[in-house]
Amino acid sequence: MARPTTHHGFTLFDTAIGRCGIAWSGRGIAAVHLPEGREPDTRARVLERFPGARESRPPAEVRRAIDAVSSHLRGEPSDLSSVVLDMERVPPFSRRVYEATRAIAPGGTLTYGDIAARLGAGGACRAVGQALRRNPFPIIVPCHRVLAAGERVGGFSAAGGIATKLRLLGIERPQAPGAQAASPDGRLGFDPRAALEHVRASDAALARLIDEVGPLRLRVDRTSSLFAALAQAIVYQQLTGKAAATIFARVRALFPRPHEGPTPEQILSASERRLRAAGLSRPKLLSLRDLARKAHDGHIPELGEVARMTDEAIVERLTEVRGIGRWTVEMLLIFRLGRPDVLPLDDYGIRKGFAAAFGERRLPTRGELEERGARWRPYRTVASWYLWRAAEAPKRGALNGATGT
Q1: Does pLDDT of 178 surpass 70?
Q2: 185 catalytic, yes or no?
Q3: What's the half-sphere exposure (Cβ side, CA atoms, 13 Å) at 197?
Q4: Reduced to 3 DSSP states, what percent helix, strand and coil does the chain have, rounded to the nearest 5?
Q5: What is the pLDDT of residue 307?
Q6: Cross-strand partners of 24
Q7: Alpha-helix runs per DSSP H in 203-318
Q8: What structural domains does the chain harbor?
Q9: Of the candidates 1, 200, 284, 309, which lies 20 to 30 Å from 264 by C-alpha distance?
């Protein structure tokens, strides 16, 4: 007797890591798809797995699963254990692997061997790995928390490969003391509502830009250490985000527990051949080694010490590292430390956004930008974020009519 046809629905939804896909049936969630390079590619992957699935509004239980996944990817506590999965197509051994994997708490990891041992199948490491590579429910079944022997990163079949795996582990990593100051929204080192009110009141033209762009969506990326953040910044210099993420993931994958590293000692002990094979250019290798030496010698401050330092003191200390300039430190102050009063005067995007927002035909000089920016103190970071948005869309709506008054 033929099995009745299962009807699937699907939808795409926004998350902190991009636009994901989710498919469901009457039995529960049938699949989750992490973002591909483009939205049409994500949609195509869903339809490849479920031909004939209809893109539609998700029912209430699916909506709750979407909200839980979205919250989790923002680094917020969320309960994914109660999400019902449709495992009709999943082989019995894989079901057991997925159940064991769902039991790993956020921030924790196991190895393929650990999972096999928990299933009473100590020699089945390879079978565990194969089941996880076919995992149709990433995030809900957190296969990114399962590492290879020696706690090395292992593989990851979703788009982005090990870079995506490390990013997911980074979202879940317990935050180091002093990594971010407390704030009403739990992310920035200042109250964004008070900052917006101040900037609005201080500059009518910037207030119009704020109305055009909408709510402040500045987010701080958590970091386990200043060394880790600076190492990533060095690798990312002058590369596209995708290429840089791939190279940095390869560097981290050289060492055990890659989601926590690399450490200064690991960079110093690794051979030039291994580091270059991961994709590092020689100048970046030299910069990383210099950073590692200074961190090993105690010259790079810990996060707790940074919390007590002024912005200028941080700039002065960190720009002594080869390959680290003022702009790199200013990006760290904004996007890693959540500092409220940073205005990167030499940033092209800031200058371009200023010209667009204030109706200027030429880019402002450094002095002109600094003079105008004095109005926005002590929340110039907020102004910077809105000027970057203006640079992205300089001819939209109210940006055409903004004046310098």
Answers
A1: no
A2: no
A3: 5
A4: 50, 5, 45
A5: 85
A6: 9, 29
A7: 204-213, 226-236, 241-252, 264-269, 272-277, 282-296, 303-306, 311-318
A8: 9-73 (3.30.160.70), 92-172 (1.10.10.10), 181-219+341-405 (1.10.1670.40), 226-335 (1.10.340.30)
A9: 309
Q: Tokens for 345?
A: 């005067």
Q: Which one of 86, 203, 341, 347 is the catalytic residue?
A: 347
- What does the pLDDT look like over 105-137, one tens digit per residue? 888 899 999 999 999 887 889 999 999 999 999
Q: How many residues are present in the chain?
A: 405
* The pairing of beta strand 18-25 with beta strand 9-15: antiparallel
pLDDT for 404 equals: 37
Q: Are the CB atoms for 235 and 192 separated by under 8 Å?
A: no
Three-state DSSP at 110 gives strand
85: three-class secondary structure by DSSP = strand
- Nearest alpha carbon to residue 96 among 141, 147, 144: 141
- What does residue 361 show for φ and ψ, rounded to 5 degrees? -85, -15
Please choose, from the candidates 255, 106, 258, the residue with its C-alpha nearest in 3D space to the C-alpha of residue 172: 106
Name the nearest CA neighbour of 291 among 317, 313, 272, 254: 317
CB 33 within 8 A of CB 45: yes
What letter represents residue 369's amino acid? L
DSSP string, 3-40: PPPPP-EEEEEEETTEEEEEEEETTEEEEEE---SSHH
> Can you give the C-alpha Rg of the chain in angstroms?
24
Peptide bond before residue 262 is cis, with ω within 30 degrees of 0 = yes
Give Dmax over CA atoms of the chain in angstroms: 80
2-9 average pLDDT score: 63
pLDDT at position 2, please? 39
Tokens of 254: 């050289």
Do 290 and 299 contact (CB within 8 A), yes or no?
A: no
Q: Is the pLDDT of residue 214 over 50?
A: yes
Q: Is residue 160 very low, low, confident or very high in pLDDT (cuts 50, 70, 90)?
A: confident
Q: pLDDT band at 268, cuts 50/70/90?
A: very high
CA–CA gap between residue 33 and residue 321 (Å, rounded): 40
Locate tokens 């254990």: which residue? Answer: 81
The number of angstroms, rounded, from the C-alpha of 10 to the middle of its chain's C-alpha atoms is 25
